[in-house]
Design goal:
The chain is α+β, with helices and mostly antiparallel strands. The chain contains 6 helices and 28 strands. Helix 2 runs antiparallel to helix 4.
Length: 497
């Protein structure tokens, strides 16, 4: 995907469109909209939108249904996934209703509740009943709390938490004098009006060291490393699908992914087609899919997807950056040997919806070159000093249940080791996939609580481009015994590639 290098301010009408339909994973999420938009909106000197007192923004928060469905019988998962997609489409419809009824909302204070929230709840209840029926037919049991997930709540912008998250190590007071909310929350910041805001950034030189020591390597552990070189996606292999979470759903991710490794991963790929995808990896036996949301610089430039699903239509705007480095390696367990990864194992690390779900599954790590051993951030983006580059790192779950290559909520078949490095509940240690992405980014500038030339990870528009929403996806696809070779290398303590 190339980019349009023209730099211009986004028209206000485009900004309203850019915050278009939010389709959140698993039938839950926040819906962002310009609420009571007036003709008095202007652009300030930083290129960010400001609003008069009469203009407000709002979110609609819907519970995440998919995360609650942890025991869906295998023969019902296809039908349930389809119903979750229906929930997502309902959220999209509700957002569009918000965006096109501003005049009615201004005249009638009860309009949102009566004409948007209540009908949305009624439609969600119908889908939840269908989900319960499909699970019951397959011999499963649905959570008793499922009916309670039908209701969604609207929140005025003045009451919306800018991050919905805790700060790393109490460092927010050292954020270059920016305000953490207040007036910023009136437009939720960002080139498209859905983030990030100044409070999402911190000067990394002002953050206290917070990196804990790694567990000690035991004699029984597996100290080897296997490196696979798959490039940086210089060929711009992008799409807005997510075959793990939303198979068969075009634009199921609602944001753009970089892909390295397997070159033909999309919503319609499957175990039957994965081996036909080719690879960008130097090791031709590594056809695994490694994909992550792109990072964009909101410098006023607009990509070729500025009017496309997953791009500007959903608040993902600015220039897409290609990493200058993408390092992929597998490491062992400090306490035991590892077993090979099974073919087609799927793992998602992190949570694309922490603004909705909280930080329980957050696994974002942001830092700067020269600081990685001292500072890792989850809820703020780093502003790096001169000569230092931005770094995203991911450490995937390293414990597997020994049976399943996926699970109903795409989480329970894998787990993280405990603080000592041990797998719990009978899970087996597998080679831990780690990834390190490095970006050359001109540091954003913070002034008077406003950020200029912000960078942010792509995401659902309702997640406000928060750093904690960073996540990474992986499907293990190998040929020629590569999975066994990786495990043997790690177990023997060698350094391989």
């Amino acid at each position: 995907m190339g980019r349009n290098s023209r730099k211009r301010r986004m028209p206000l009408a485009t900004k309203a469109i850019a915050a278009s339909a939010a389709l959140a994973l698993g039938g839950g999420g926040l819906i962002w909209a310009n609420y009571y938009a007036s003709a008095h909106e202007t652009n300030n000197a930083w290129g960010n939108q400001t609003k008069s007192a009469s203009a407000q923004t709002a979110t609609i928060s819907c519970p995440d249904v998919g995360q609650q469905l942890t025991n869906v019988p295998r023969n019902a998962r296809g039908e349930v996934a389809g119903e979750l997609a229906n929930l997502d489409r309902q959220i999209t419809d509700a957002y569009q209703r918000l965006a096109t009824t501003r005049d009615a909302q201004t005249r009638d204070a009860s309009f949102v509740q009566n004409s948007i929230l209540q009908p949305l709840q009624d439609r969600r209840k119908v889908i939840l009943d269908r989900i319960k029926l499909e699970i019951s037919r397959a011999g499963g049991t649905t959570p008793s709390s499922l009916d309670a997930l039908a209701s969604c709540v609207g929140t005025p912008a003045s009451q919306t938490n800018a991050g919905g998250q805790q700060n790393n190590g109490g460092q927010q007071q050292n954020n270059g004098g920016q305000q953490s909310g207040g007036g910023q929350q009136q437009n939720i910041g960002g080139q498209a009006g859905n983030g990030p805001v100044a409070a999402d950034f911190v000067d990394i030189t002002r953050v206290r060291p917070n990196v804990a020591a790694k567990p000690r390597m035991m004699r029984s552990g597996s100290a080897g490393t296997f490196i696979t070189r798959c490039g940086v996606n210089a060929n711009k292999n992008h799409n807005t699908d997510n075959v793990i979470v939303a198979p068969g759903v075009t634009n199921g991710a609602h944001h753009t992914h970089d892909y390295v490794g397997n070159q033909k991963i999309n919503a319609f790929s499957s175990n039957d087609t994965f081996l036909q995808g080719g690879t960008s990896c130097q090791n031709r036996s590594d056809l695994s899919a490694y994909y992550w949301p792109v990072v964009r610089v909101q410098d006023g430039s607009q990509e070729v997807d500025q009017n496309a699903d997953g791009g500007g239509k959903e608040g993902n705007v600015g220039r897409i950056l290609t990493p200058v480095q993408a390092q992929i390696k597998y490491v062992g367990s400090p306490t035991s040997k590892v077993v090979p990864m099974p073919q087609f194992l799927r793992i998602i690390t992190g949570d694309a919806k922490t603004t909705t779900n909280g930080l329980a599954n957050a696994n974002a790590h942001w830092s700067c070159t020269g600081f990685e051993n001292r500072v890792q951030l989850t809820t703020q983006y780093p502003i790096c000093p001169s000569g230092s580059n931005v770094v995203r790192t991911f450490a995937f779950q390293s414990c597997w249940d020994g049976q399943n290559i996926d699970s109903a909520n795409h989480r329970t078949h894998v787990a993280f080791a405990d603080a000592r490095g041990n797998c719990q509940n009978g899970f087996k240690a597998i080679p831990q996939l780690t990834m390190r992405l490095v970006y050359k980014i001109n540091p954003p500038v913070l002034r008077n609580g406003v950020v200029k030339n912000a960078y942010a990870v792509d995401g659902f528009p309702e997640q406000l481009h928060k750093p904690a929403t960073d996540h990474d996806d992986f499907i293990s696809i190998t040929t020629g015994g590569l999975s066994n070779r990786i495990a043997n290398c790690v177990n023997s303590g060698r350094q391989c590639q």
